[in-house]
Amino acid sequence: MLKKVRIDKWLWSVRIFKSRSMATDACKSSKVKVGEQNIKPSYLLQRGETVLVKKNGFNLTFKVIDLLEKRVSAVLAQPCYEDLTPPEELNKYTDWFVGKGRPEAREKGAGRPTKKDRREIDRFKDF
Which of 67, 30, 29 is nearest to 48 (CA)? Predict the structure, then answer.
């Protein structure tokens, strides 16, 4: 049983990143933290630690339950960490789009808006 494993290896093995080099680059660019501290890719991760990952505009939080050194299937990787990411963080993009109208559409054959039409549209949008 492993006592410690490199964080870049663990992030790759539990499928948080597609490749180990992506996990290494994320650690180098301060997108991965353990607790509140920025870490290097060679940081030795232990069970029970909390890992914060900034990925694709999301702030993900994971608690390490088990350590892996080799990449495994998603089914086997799932029990190795607990996802502590708040639901509002996971849904922040869908929340942003809720209640937004569809894009403007003009009738077919109406042509390009005139200057007068454009001013009316701008007044309408600005309230």
Answer: 67
Q: Give the bridge partners for 114, in sequence order.
A: none
Both tokens of residue 79? 């029990």
86-109 pLDDT, tens digit each: 988 888 877 766 666 677 777 888
Q: What are the residues facing 115 on neighbouring strands?
A: none
pTM assigned to the model: 0.73
Strand partners, 60: 53
Q: Specify the fold of 5-89.
A: 3.10.290
Residue 73: Cβ-neighbour burial (10 angstroms; 0-12, 13-18, 19+): exposed
- Integer Cα distance of 36 and 12 in angstroms: 21
15: left (phi over 0), alpha (psi -120 to 50) or beta: left
Candidates 40, 45, 41; CA nearest to 62 is: 45
